[in-house]
């Protein structure tokens, strides 16, 4: 299974940016995917809206989303 580094590499190659791990975790949370830990506080660095679709594209590429 792919990991965050694979998502970051895909994003770098396809879109020219390195997605921060907190962005990937936020998009996972928005799509109902399991996270490593449960959150009780609001996110300090949520995913910028302009990159959400690109991260979801990478997640679909690696089979995290359908």
Question: Helix/strand-derived class?
Answer: mainly alpha
Radius of gyration: 11 Å
Question: Which overall shape is indicated by the principal axes computed on the Cα atoms?
Answer: globular
Q: How much of the residues is beta strand, in percent?
A: under 5%
Helix content: 40-55%
Low-confidence stretches: none
Order of helices and strands: HHH
Number of strands: 0
Descriptive notes:
The longest helix is centred in the last third of the chain and has 13 residues, at 49-61. Helices cover 53% and strands 0% of the residues. The chain has one domain. The protein has three helices and no strands. The two termini are 15 Å apart. The model has no long low-confidence stretch (mean pLDDT 94). By secondary structure, the protein is an all-alpha fold.
Topology:
Elements lengths: L3 H12 L5 H10 L18 H13 L5
Helix pairs in contact: 1-3
Short overview:
With 66 residues, the protein is mostly helical. Helices cover 53% and strands 0% of the residues. The protein has one domain.
Write out key terms for the chains shown:
single chain, 66 residues, mainly alpha, 3 helices
């Amino acid at each position: 299974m792919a990991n965050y580094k694979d998502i970051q590499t895909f994003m770098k190659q396809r879109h020219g940016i390195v997605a921060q791990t907190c962005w990937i975790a936020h998009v996972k949370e928005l799509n109902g995917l399991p996270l490593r830990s449960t959150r009780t506080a609001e996110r300090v660095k949520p995913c910028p809206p302009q990159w959400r679709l690109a991260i979801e594209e990478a997640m679909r590429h690696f089979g995290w989303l359908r």
